[in-house]
Specification:
Blueprint lengths: L7 E7 L4 E5 L9 H4 L11 E6 L14 E9 L4 E2 L6 E6 L3 E2 L5 E2 L2 H9 L12 E4 L26 E5 L9 H9 L2 E6 L11 E6 L4 H12 L6 E4 L24 E6 L2
Parallel strand pairs: 4-10, 11-14
Antiparallel strand pairs: 1-2, 1-3, 4-5, 4-6, 7-8, 9-10, 11-12, 13-14
Length: 265
């Protein structure tokens, strides 16, 4: 059956981020595709388009120039985890609220929270929905400041956020605990300072965001000696990690799988 033009529209699509961009205006449909997509270069370009259909033209998602796509996965208390049901995976169009620290257009956290809340069945007594970064350098962090921009946290169109309705008891968000346990926890093997060749004798779990002082304190409990009596190195023949205020990640240990323990402060 032929598709009525009023019930279909073309949109440019960015495969790397899954972003659906502004629909092509109806006036552009009478121009060449290259002109409509502003591909004026003499060198052949490439563009990906998607065709959207709707039973009623009024049912199409509203799009405004400057809107940004934000990917949000809803936390399901029923399964105690992220829900991957289609209705719980949201590709929201959120208005740009200005420029972040990078200078690029970005949406405010408050705008994202409002867009998510509009899609959730909620009561007036329910606490505000929490927005948590699932990907990027700030994964696991609660984005609480409604005035802040997503770009301030390095969040772009390809990143994913989680939306979780907090427990009324004030307990820690389950999504942050999950990210911390799965993505932000490092398992490090280490030796006793008196047995430098037994590099996998002990193991410790530590947050990648923890300072080295915390890592040493945990290792000291396992070793049964004071943290002031040993130092850390990335390897047996590398330099001592003297700045113990740095985090496990900043020190280059997060993905190494091991850390060398030497005798002496």
């Amino acid at each position: 059956k032929d598709l009525e033009p009023s019930r279909a529209r073309l949109r440019r699509y960015e495969p790397s981020t899954g972003e659906r961009r502004m629909p092509l205006e109806s006036s552009a449909l009478h121009r060449s595709l290259g002109d409509a997509l502003e591909m004026r270069s003499t060198i052949s370009g490439a563009a990906t388009l998607i065709l959207e259909q709707a039973a009623d033209p009024e049912a199409f998602e509203a799009c405004q120039e400057g809107d940004l796509q934000v990917l949000v996965c809803l936390w399901s208390p029923c399964v105690g985890g992220l829900s991957f049901l289609p209705e719980h995976l949201l590709a929201l169009r959120v208005p740009s609220s200005g420029a972040g620290k990078s200078g690029k257009p970005s949406a405010s956290i408050g705008a994202v929270r409002a867009a998510v809340s509009a899609r959730l069945p909620r009561t007036n007594a329910a606490p505000p929905v929490a927005i948590v970064a699932l990907t990027g350098e700030h994964s696991g962090q609660v984005l609480a400041d409604d005035e802040a921009m997503l770009a301030d946290f390095g969040i772009t169109a390809g990143d994913v956020l989680c939306a979780e309705v907090p427990d009324s008891s004030g307990a820690e968000l389950q999504s942050t605990e999950l990210v911390e346990r799965v993505q932000n926890t490092a398992r490090l093997a280490f030796n006793h300072p008196d047995r430098p060749t037994a590099v996998e004798e002990f193991q410790v779990l530590v947050s990648k965001r923890a300072p080295l002082t915390e890592l040493k304190a945990r290792m000291a409990e396992v070793l049964g000696i004071g943290a002031e009596f040993f130092h850390l190195r990335r390897g047996r023949r590398t330099q001592q990690l003297k700045d113990e205020a740095k985090t496990v990640s900043q020190s280059g240990l997060a993905d190494s799988g091991s850390v060398f323990v030497g005798r002496g402060p």
